[in-house]
Automatic annotation (TrEMBL):
Source organism: Bacillus songklensis
Record keywords, A-Z: 2Fe-2S, Iron, Iron-sulfur, Metal-binding, Oxidoreductase
Domain Rieske residues, every copy: 27-134
Keyword Iron-sulfur attached: yes
Name the UniProt record assigns to this protein: Rieske 2Fe-2S domain-containing protein
CDD domains attached to this UniProt entry: RHO_alpha_C_DMO-like, Rieske_RO_Alpha_PhDO_like
A Pfam family per the record: Rieske
Top-level taxon in the UniProt lineage: Bacteria
Keyword Disulfide bond: no
Amino acid sequence: MLKKEDNEKLCRTNSGTPMGEVFRSYWIPALLTEEVPEADCPPVRLKLLGEELVAFRDSEGKVAILDAYCPHRRAHLFWGRNEECGIRCVYHGWKFDQAGNCVDMPNEPDNSKFKHRVKLTSYPTWEKSGIIWTYMGKGEQPSYPDFEWLRAPDTHFQVSKTYEGCNWLQALEGGIDTSHSSFAHNNNIQDKKSMRSRATNPKLEVDKTDYGFRYVGIRDLKDDGNYIRAYQFIMPAQQMRGQMIKWHDGSREDYPTVRGHIWVPIDDESVWVWNFKYTSEPSIPLDPKFSLEQEILFGRGPDDVLPGYRLKRNPSNDYLIDRELQRTKTFTGIKGVNTQDYALQETMEKPFIDRTKERLGTADLAIIAARQMLLEAIRDLEEGRQPKGVNPETYRNVRACDRFLPKGIDWREGLAEDMQAKF
Ligand code: FES
Ligand SMILES: [Fe+2]
């Protein structure tokens, strides 16, 4: 449960709001490289943190992110012509370069100096690993992000993004929430032997760090030891999780990957979910077939996504819920692991959940920790301190993992090596 004013503070991210200012302290993912694939390609619309923007790749290959509305008479620059290192508004021909300078004003007298007094808001960009990042703050630019996955070579790494129609915080909280996987993501209710079915009440432990916190869900498998899922929450909106399942006697090993999400608010009622994965062993490249299988499993395969990175299974069709499947095979009857999440999160209260009415239990420890940390970041900024996780040194060497550990071994010790970056 949260006080009403704290809930408002955390959920709203437009310019000038407390959490909006926190988000504007970090580099955030803005676009996939594939959205502006080559110099002078068509411009794209973009909305981030409640701001309507337009993006284009100029003639020199640099990606520009500008205010969407032309400062002349407010036409949308999405209609613009991307030509010779600038975007030209098609209403009266004003042209802007990637830094937002007005470089041509052909409907004014030749000797007019007016164009030198007109400027459009522009945000700096940085391109890495198929993602165009932006910094929307006013102060000095922080160092570029340096997550381990940004250092993994392209052969080992894959990224996608999907639209989710809910407030960013309920999407993030869903990612952090580990106990729901025994229920919402149980895709074989007959299988009583799976780790999830054997222990539905993981014990949570949270360790705060300089970048956010790391935490584990410990599932007690009795004589078989503990199944431990170790995660990182990296401020302000990233979560990493492991996917290497290894029995302590070495008898079972799945494909070793680390996965994660970053949740970037579009506005107060929608969010871009960035999905990344990479192999956790530098000697093993990411198998494209495995990668595709995973995307399909999570509900974002080629047949699952509509233009604009929206899912075919969405609130307009009740996520194509199959009640017979729900009765006989899967807990939700909805196909796609992340689609199951979206169904639950997108249909909560609008514009965002009323956290004054929640009843949180011990399984919600990590969610409570994330809220505290985000509120702390708001206070840090208000009091002139840099929020946690802005400095890449704080997180560059961490990673998440999934492991079985024998009883009696503390995860901090047993997983120390597996939670160290290898790239
Ligand atoms: S509105 Fe863009 S040039 Fe007039
Ligand atoms: Fe989930």
